[in-house]
Design a protein that fits this description.
Length: 392
Protein backbone atom coordinates (compact mmCIF):
# COMPACT_ATOMS: atom_id res chain seq x y z
CA UNK A 1 0.00 0.00 0.00
CA UNK A 2 1.37 3.42 -0.98
CA UNK A 3 -0.98 5.72 0.93
CA UNK A 4 1.68 8.41 1.43
CA UNK A 5 2.88 8.48 -2.19
CA UNK A 6 2.85 11.80 -4.00
CA UNK A 7 0.13 11.99 -6.68
CA UNK A 8 1.40 11.41 -10.19
CA UNK A 9 0.33 12.72 -13.58
CA UNK A 10 -0.70 10.59 -16.52
CA UNK A 11 2.69 11.24 -18.11
CA UNK A 12 4.66 10.07 -15.07
CA UNK A 13 2.49 6.98 -14.72
CA UNK A 14 3.05 6.13 -18.38
CA UNK A 15 6.80 6.58 -17.94
CA UNK A 16 6.80 4.26 -14.91
CA UNK A 17 4.80 1.61 -16.75
CA UNK A 18 7.10 1.81 -19.80
CA UNK A 19 10.06 1.28 -17.49
CA UNK A 20 8.29 -1.79 -16.07
CA UNK A 21 7.47 -3.36 -19.47
CA UNK A 22 10.71 -5.44 -19.74
CA UNK A 23 10.09 -6.88 -16.27
CA UNK A 24 6.45 -7.65 -17.02
CA UNK A 25 7.52 -9.52 -20.17
CA UNK A 26 10.31 -11.37 -18.42
CA UNK A 27 7.93 -12.51 -15.69
CA UNK A 28 5.47 -13.90 -18.23
CA UNK A 29 6.83 -17.44 -18.22
CA UNK A 30 6.71 -17.83 -14.44
CA UNK A 31 3.34 -16.07 -14.17
CA UNK A 32 1.87 -18.50 -16.66
CA UNK A 33 3.43 -21.50 -14.90
CA UNK A 34 1.97 -20.57 -11.53
CA UNK A 35 -1.34 -19.47 -13.15
CA UNK A 36 -1.22 -16.04 -11.53
CA UNK A 37 0.86 -12.95 -12.29
CA UNK A 38 3.95 -12.55 -10.17
CA UNK A 39 3.68 -10.31 -7.14
CA UNK A 40 6.49 -8.18 -8.59
CA UNK A 41 4.22 -7.16 -11.47
CA UNK A 42 1.51 -5.89 -9.14
CA UNK A 43 4.06 -4.20 -6.89
CA UNK A 44 5.56 -2.29 -9.84
CA UNK A 45 2.13 -1.16 -10.98
CA UNK A 46 1.12 -0.14 -7.47
CA UNK A 47 4.31 1.91 -7.17
CA UNK A 48 3.31 3.60 -10.44
CA UNK A 49 -0.13 4.30 -8.86
CA UNK A 50 -1.93 2.35 -11.57
CA UNK A 51 -4.49 1.09 -9.06
CA UNK A 52 -5.39 4.67 -8.16
CA UNK A 53 -6.43 5.56 -11.69
CA UNK A 54 -10.14 5.17 -10.93
CA UNK A 55 -10.09 5.90 -7.20
CA UNK A 56 -11.95 9.15 -6.45
CA UNK A 57 -9.69 12.08 -5.65
CA UNK A 58 -11.46 12.64 -2.33
CA UNK A 59 -10.13 9.26 -1.20
CA UNK A 60 -6.56 9.90 -2.31
CA UNK A 61 -6.98 8.58 -5.85
CA UNK A 62 -6.03 10.04 -9.22
CA UNK A 63 -9.56 9.92 -10.64
CA UNK A 64 -8.28 10.19 -14.22
CA UNK A 65 -10.59 10.49 -17.22
CA UNK A 66 -11.33 7.38 -19.25
CA UNK A 67 -8.95 8.22 -22.10
CA UNK A 68 -5.99 8.52 -19.72
CA UNK A 69 -6.81 5.23 -18.02
CA UNK A 70 -6.97 3.58 -21.44
CA UNK A 71 -3.49 4.87 -22.33
CA UNK A 72 -2.05 3.27 -19.21
CA UNK A 73 -3.79 -0.06 -19.85
CA UNK A 74 -2.45 -0.07 -23.40
CA UNK A 75 1.10 0.37 -22.09
CA UNK A 76 0.66 -2.51 -19.63
CA UNK A 77 -0.61 -4.65 -22.52
CA UNK A 78 2.71 -4.12 -24.31
CA UNK A 79 4.43 -5.85 -21.43
CA UNK A 80 2.22 -8.75 -20.38
CA UNK A 81 -1.27 -9.65 -21.62
CA UNK A 82 -2.33 -11.34 -18.39
CA UNK A 83 -1.11 -8.44 -16.26
CA UNK A 84 -2.94 -6.01 -18.55
CA UNK A 85 -6.17 -7.97 -18.25
CA UNK A 86 -5.99 -8.11 -14.46
CA UNK A 87 -5.15 -4.39 -14.35
CA UNK A 88 -8.13 -3.66 -16.59
CA UNK A 89 -10.36 -5.57 -14.17
CA UNK A 90 -9.04 -3.65 -11.16
CA UNK A 91 -9.21 -0.25 -12.87
CA UNK A 92 -12.70 -0.69 -14.31
CA UNK A 93 -14.03 -2.06 -11.03
CA UNK A 94 -12.60 0.92 -9.15
CA UNK A 95 -14.99 3.06 -11.16
CA UNK A 96 -17.79 0.53 -10.67
CA UNK A 97 -17.28 0.85 -6.90
CA UNK A 98 -18.18 4.53 -7.20
CA UNK A 99 -21.70 3.46 -8.20
CA UNK A 100 -22.30 2.21 -4.65
CA UNK A 101 -23.47 4.49 -1.82
CA UNK A 102 -20.93 6.81 -0.23
CA UNK A 103 -20.67 4.67 2.91
CA UNK A 104 -19.51 1.69 0.83
CA UNK A 105 -17.02 3.87 -1.05
CA UNK A 106 -15.51 5.12 2.22
CA UNK A 107 -14.93 1.53 3.28
CA UNK A 108 -13.51 0.34 -0.05
CA UNK A 109 -11.27 3.32 -0.68
CA UNK A 110 -9.87 3.49 2.85
CA UNK A 111 -6.99 2.02 0.85
CA UNK A 112 -6.67 4.26 -2.23
CA UNK A 113 -4.79 1.44 -3.97
CA UNK A 114 -7.71 -0.97 -3.45
CA UNK A 115 -7.76 -3.76 -6.02
CA UNK A 116 -11.29 -4.87 -6.87
CA UNK A 117 -12.14 -8.00 -8.86
CA UNK A 118 -15.55 -9.19 -10.01
CA UNK A 119 -17.89 -9.70 -12.92
CA UNK A 120 -21.42 -9.35 -14.23
CA UNK A 121 -22.74 -12.94 -14.48
CA UNK A 122 -25.37 -13.45 -11.75
CA UNK A 123 -24.41 -16.81 -10.27
CA UNK A 124 -25.36 -16.25 -6.66
CA UNK A 125 -28.30 -15.13 -4.53
CA UNK A 126 -28.79 -12.14 -2.23
CA UNK A 127 -31.50 -12.85 0.33
CA UNK A 128 -32.78 -10.02 2.55
CA UNK A 129 -32.01 -10.22 6.26
CA UNK A 130 -32.05 -7.58 8.98
CA UNK A 131 -29.72 -4.74 8.00
CA UNK A 132 -28.80 -6.11 4.61
CA UNK A 133 -28.54 -9.33 2.67
CA UNK A 134 -27.11 -12.83 2.93
CA UNK A 135 -24.96 -13.79 -0.06
CA UNK A 136 -24.39 -17.33 -1.32
CA UNK A 137 -22.94 -18.37 -4.65
CA UNK A 138 -19.97 -19.25 -6.83
CA UNK A 139 -18.45 -17.13 -9.57
CA UNK A 140 -16.26 -18.62 -12.31
CA UNK A 141 -13.64 -16.72 -14.32
CA UNK A 142 -13.00 -14.31 -11.43
CA UNK A 143 -9.92 -12.64 -12.90
CA UNK A 144 -7.56 -11.12 -10.36
CA UNK A 145 -9.32 -12.68 -7.36
CA UNK A 146 -6.04 -13.84 -5.83
CA UNK A 147 -4.68 -10.31 -5.59
CA UNK A 148 -7.91 -8.43 -4.84
CA UNK A 149 -8.93 -6.67 -1.66
CA UNK A 150 -12.62 -6.52 -2.63
CA UNK A 151 -14.86 -8.46 -4.99
CA UNK A 152 -17.94 -7.26 -6.87
CA UNK A 153 -20.41 -10.09 -7.39
CA UNK A 154 -23.53 -10.19 -9.54
CA UNK A 155 -26.38 -12.13 -8.02
CA UNK A 156 -30.12 -12.62 -8.15
CA UNK A 157 -31.46 -10.15 -5.62
CA UNK A 158 -34.64 -10.74 -3.66
CA UNK A 159 -36.05 -7.36 -2.67
CA UNK A 160 -37.79 -6.76 0.66
CA UNK A 161 -41.18 -6.85 -1.11
CA UNK A 162 -40.43 -10.37 -2.38
CA UNK A 163 -39.81 -9.47 -6.01
CA UNK A 164 -36.57 -10.56 -7.67
CA UNK A 165 -34.13 -8.62 -9.80
CA UNK A 166 -30.39 -8.70 -10.53
CA UNK A 167 -28.03 -7.00 -8.13
CA UNK A 168 -24.37 -6.43 -7.42
CA UNK A 169 -22.67 -6.61 -4.04
CA UNK A 170 -19.22 -5.41 -3.05
CA UNK A 171 -17.67 -7.72 -0.47
CA UNK A 172 -14.21 -8.05 1.11
CA UNK A 173 -12.22 -10.69 -0.77
CA UNK A 174 -11.32 -12.21 2.60
CA UNK A 175 -14.91 -13.49 2.84
CA UNK A 176 -14.44 -15.72 -0.23
CA UNK A 177 -12.78 -19.04 -0.76
CA UNK A 178 -10.82 -19.21 -4.00
CA UNK A 179 -10.68 -22.49 -5.89
CA UNK A 180 -7.69 -24.00 -7.65
CA UNK A 181 -9.45 -24.54 -10.97
CA UNK A 182 -7.73 -22.17 -13.41
CA UNK A 183 -5.67 -24.28 -15.82
CA UNK A 184 -5.95 -22.86 -19.33
CA UNK A 185 -4.11 -22.47 -22.62
CA UNK A 186 -4.91 -18.74 -22.78
CA UNK A 187 -4.79 -16.01 -20.15
CA UNK A 188 -3.20 -18.49 -17.77
CA UNK A 189 -1.58 -15.75 -15.70
CA UNK A 190 -4.86 -14.03 -14.86
CA UNK A 191 -5.64 -16.43 -12.02
CA UNK A 192 -9.31 -16.41 -13.00
CA UNK A 193 -10.29 -19.00 -10.41
CA UNK A 194 -13.76 -19.65 -9.08
CA UNK A 195 -14.63 -17.73 -5.91
CA UNK A 196 -17.31 -18.88 -3.45
CA UNK A 197 -19.22 -17.64 -0.42
CA UNK A 198 -21.86 -19.33 1.71
CA UNK A 199 -24.23 -17.26 3.83
CA UNK A 200 -22.04 -14.16 4.10
CA UNK A 201 -23.73 -11.05 5.48
CA UNK A 202 -23.57 -7.98 3.23
CA UNK A 203 -24.82 -4.69 4.69
CA UNK A 204 -27.46 -2.91 2.61
CA UNK A 205 -25.14 -0.04 1.64
CA UNK A 206 -22.88 -2.49 -0.20
CA UNK A 207 -25.65 -3.74 -2.48
CA UNK A 208 -27.13 -2.09 -5.59
CA UNK A 209 -29.48 -3.27 -8.31
CA UNK A 210 -27.91 -3.88 -11.70
CA UNK A 211 -30.41 -1.39 -13.15
CA UNK A 212 -29.17 1.36 -10.85
CA UNK A 213 -25.56 0.47 -11.70
CA UNK A 214 -26.20 0.58 -15.45
CA UNK A 215 -28.14 3.85 -15.19
CA UNK A 216 -25.74 5.47 -12.71
CA UNK A 217 -28.67 6.03 -10.36
CA UNK A 218 -27.87 4.18 -7.12
CA UNK A 219 -29.40 6.00 -4.12
CA UNK A 220 -27.06 7.32 -1.45
CA UNK A 221 -24.24 8.50 -3.70
CA UNK A 222 -23.13 11.81 -5.12
CA UNK A 223 -22.40 11.60 -8.88
CA UNK A 224 -19.02 13.12 -9.73
CA UNK A 225 -19.11 15.60 -12.64
CA UNK A 226 -17.03 14.34 -15.54
CA UNK A 227 -17.13 10.73 -14.34
CA UNK A 228 -20.74 9.91 -15.25
CA UNK A 229 -19.78 7.05 -17.55
CA UNK A 230 -21.93 4.22 -18.80
CA UNK A 231 -21.04 0.83 -17.33
CA UNK A 232 -20.72 -1.43 -20.35
CA UNK A 233 -19.14 1.12 -22.71
CA UNK A 234 -16.54 1.84 -20.03
CA UNK A 235 -15.69 -1.82 -19.50
CA UNK A 236 -15.60 -2.70 -23.21
CA UNK A 237 -13.44 0.26 -24.22
CA UNK A 238 -10.95 -0.53 -21.45
CA UNK A 239 -10.83 -4.17 -22.61
CA UNK A 240 -10.10 -2.94 -26.12
CA UNK A 241 -7.36 -0.61 -24.87
CA UNK A 242 -5.58 -3.51 -23.17
CA UNK A 243 -5.87 -5.70 -26.30
CA UNK A 244 -4.50 -2.95 -28.54
CA UNK A 245 -1.51 -2.80 -26.20
CA UNK A 246 -1.02 -6.55 -26.58
CA UNK A 247 -0.90 -6.15 -30.37
CA UNK A 248 1.60 -3.31 -30.07
CA UNK A 249 3.75 -5.52 -27.87
CA UNK A 250 3.62 -8.38 -30.37
CA UNK A 251 4.72 -6.08 -33.18
CA UNK A 252 7.66 -4.86 -31.09
CA UNK A 253 8.64 -8.44 -30.23
CA UNK A 254 8.49 -9.48 -33.88
CA UNK A 255 10.67 -6.59 -35.04
CA UNK A 256 13.18 -7.12 -32.21
CA UNK A 257 13.93 -10.70 -33.27
CA UNK A 258 13.87 -10.05 -37.02
CA UNK A 259 17.45 -8.78 -37.62
CA UNK A 260 19.75 -11.55 -38.80
CA UNK A 261 16.99 -14.13 -39.16
CA UNK A 262 16.86 -16.22 -42.29
CA UNK A 263 14.07 -18.42 -43.61
CA UNK A 264 14.83 -22.09 -43.02
CA UNK A 265 14.90 -24.43 -46.04
CA UNK A 266 15.22 -21.51 -48.43
CA UNK A 267 18.09 -19.39 -49.71
CA UNK A 268 16.74 -16.30 -47.91
CA UNK A 269 19.33 -15.25 -45.34
CA UNK A 270 17.51 -12.10 -44.21
CA UNK A 271 13.79 -12.44 -43.55
CA UNK A 272 13.32 -8.67 -43.54
CA UNK A 273 14.24 -8.63 -47.26
CA UNK A 274 11.43 -11.02 -48.16
CA UNK A 275 8.36 -9.49 -49.80
CA UNK A 276 5.93 -11.65 -47.80
CA UNK A 277 7.44 -10.55 -44.49
CA UNK A 278 7.16 -6.92 -45.50
CA UNK A 279 3.49 -7.38 -46.43
CA UNK A 280 2.79 -9.24 -43.21
CA UNK A 281 4.39 -6.56 -41.02
CA UNK A 282 2.59 -3.77 -42.86
CA UNK A 283 -0.74 -5.58 -42.62
CA UNK A 284 -0.34 -6.16 -38.89
CA UNK A 285 0.75 -2.56 -38.30
CA UNK A 286 -2.22 -1.23 -40.24
CA UNK A 287 -4.66 -3.42 -38.33
CA UNK A 288 -3.26 -2.03 -35.08
CA UNK A 289 -3.47 1.52 -36.43
CA UNK A 290 -7.08 0.92 -37.51
CA UNK A 291 -7.97 -0.35 -34.03
CA UNK A 292 -6.30 2.70 -32.49
CA UNK A 293 -8.18 5.01 -34.85
CA UNK A 294 -11.50 3.47 -33.81
CA UNK A 295 -10.55 3.81 -30.16
CA UNK A 296 -9.70 7.46 -30.71
CA UNK A 297 -13.35 8.18 -31.48
CA UNK A 298 -14.63 6.60 -28.26
CA UNK A 299 -12.89 8.66 -25.61
CA UNK A 300 -14.15 12.15 -26.58
CA UNK A 301 -17.68 10.84 -27.17
CA UNK A 302 -17.88 9.07 -23.80
CA UNK A 303 -16.23 11.97 -22.01
CA UNK A 304 -18.73 14.41 -23.50
CA UNK A 305 -21.58 12.35 -22.09
CA UNK A 306 -19.81 12.13 -18.73
CA UNK A 307 -19.36 15.91 -18.60
CA UNK A 308 -23.03 16.42 -19.47
CA UNK A 309 -24.02 13.79 -16.87
CA UNK A 310 -26.13 11.85 -19.33
CA UNK A 311 -25.67 8.41 -20.87
CA UNK A 312 -25.11 7.35 -24.50
CA UNK A 313 -28.22 6.55 -26.50
CA UNK A 314 -29.09 2.96 -27.36
CA UNK A 315 -27.80 3.54 -30.88
CA UNK A 316 -24.51 4.98 -29.60
CA UNK A 317 -24.00 2.12 -27.15
CA UNK A 318 -24.85 -0.53 -29.75
CA UNK A 319 -22.42 1.09 -32.18
CA UNK A 320 -19.75 1.13 -29.49
CA UNK A 321 -20.28 -2.56 -28.75
CA UNK A 322 -19.71 -3.43 -32.39
CA UNK A 323 -16.70 -1.15 -32.73
CA UNK A 324 -14.94 -2.31 -29.56
CA UNK A 325 -15.31 -5.95 -30.56
CA UNK A 326 -14.13 -5.13 -34.08
CA UNK A 327 -11.07 -3.31 -32.72
CA UNK A 328 -10.24 -6.29 -30.49
CA UNK A 329 -10.56 -8.58 -33.50
CA UNK A 330 -8.20 -6.33 -35.49
CA UNK A 331 -5.67 -6.53 -32.66
CA UNK A 332 -6.09 -10.31 -32.42
CA UNK A 333 -5.58 -10.72 -36.17
CA UNK A 334 -2.47 -8.53 -36.10
CA UNK A 335 -0.94 -10.78 -33.44
CA UNK A 336 -1.91 -13.90 -35.40
CA UNK A 337 -0.18 -12.60 -38.54
CA UNK A 338 2.99 -11.78 -36.64
CA UNK A 339 2.99 -15.13 -34.84
CA UNK A 340 2.60 -17.04 -38.10
CA UNK A 341 5.42 -15.02 -39.65
CA UNK A 342 7.77 -15.83 -36.77
CA UNK A 343 8.76 -19.41 -37.58
CA UNK A 344 8.62 -22.56 -35.52
CA UNK A 345 11.10 -21.36 -32.91
CA UNK A 346 8.47 -19.15 -31.27
CA UNK A 347 6.44 -22.10 -30.03
CA UNK A 348 8.86 -22.37 -27.12
CA UNK A 349 7.39 -21.05 -23.88
CA UNK A 350 10.36 -18.72 -23.44
CA UNK A 351 9.34 -16.78 -26.56
CA UNK A 352 6.91 -14.07 -25.41
CA UNK A 353 5.12 -13.70 -28.75
CA UNK A 354 3.50 -17.14 -28.51
CA UNK A 355 2.01 -16.15 -25.17
CA UNK A 356 0.72 -12.86 -26.61
CA UNK A 357 -0.86 -14.90 -29.40
CA UNK A 358 -2.55 -17.42 -27.10
CA UNK A 359 -3.66 -14.83 -24.58
CA UNK A 360 -5.31 -12.40 -26.97
CA UNK A 361 -7.11 -15.31 -28.64
CA UNK A 362 -8.55 -16.21 -25.25
CA UNK A 363 -9.55 -12.66 -24.31
CA UNK A 364 -11.36 -12.25 -27.63
CA UNK A 365 -13.46 -15.31 -26.67
CA UNK A 366 -14.93 -13.47 -23.67
CA UNK A 367 -18.71 -13.46 -24.03
CA UNK A 368 -18.91 -9.68 -23.63
CA UNK A 369 -16.31 -9.15 -26.36
CA UNK A 370 -17.30 -11.83 -28.90
CA UNK A 371 -17.18 -10.32 -32.39
CA UNK A 372 -20.30 -11.78 -33.97
CA UNK A 373 -22.46 -11.18 -30.91
CA UNK A 374 -21.49 -7.52 -30.82
CA UNK A 375 -21.77 -7.01 -34.56
CA UNK A 376 -25.29 -8.40 -34.35
CA UNK A 377 -26.18 -5.83 -31.67
CA UNK A 378 -24.68 -3.04 -33.77
CA UNK A 379 -26.24 -4.31 -36.98
CA UNK A 380 -29.72 -4.58 -35.49
CA UNK A 381 -29.68 -0.92 -34.59
CA UNK A 382 -28.17 0.09 -37.94
CA UNK A 383 -31.06 -1.55 -39.81
CA UNK A 384 -33.66 0.08 -37.57
CA UNK A 385 -34.36 -2.67 -35.01
CA UNK A 386 -33.94 -2.53 -31.25
CA UNK A 387 -30.67 -3.81 -29.82
CA UNK A 388 -32.38 -6.82 -28.16
CA UNK A 389 -30.07 -6.68 -25.14
CA UNK A 390 -30.08 -4.74 -21.85
CA UNK A 391 -26.26 -4.80 -21.78
CA UNK A 392 -25.74 -1.34 -23.20
Amino acid sequence: MTATAEPQTTATILDAVRDAVPTLRRNGVESEARRWVLDENLELLEQAQVFRLGTPARYGGLDLPLADKAKVLTEIGRGCPSTAWVSMVYVSNSWLATLFPEQAQEEVFANPDARISGGFTPSGHLTPVEGGYELTGAWRFNSGAKGAHWNITAAFLTLPDGTETEGVAIVPMSEFSIGDDWDTTSAAGTGSNTSRVEGVFVPAHRVATIEDAVLNSTPGREPKPGRHYSLFPLVMTECAAACIGMARGALELFLERLPGRGITYTDHTDQSQHLLTQVQVATAANKIAAAEALAGTWWPALQAHAEAQDLPTEAESANLRGQTAFAIDLAKEAVRILFEASGASVIGRAAPIQRFHRDIQGFAQHALLALNTNLEVQGRVLVGLDAATPYL
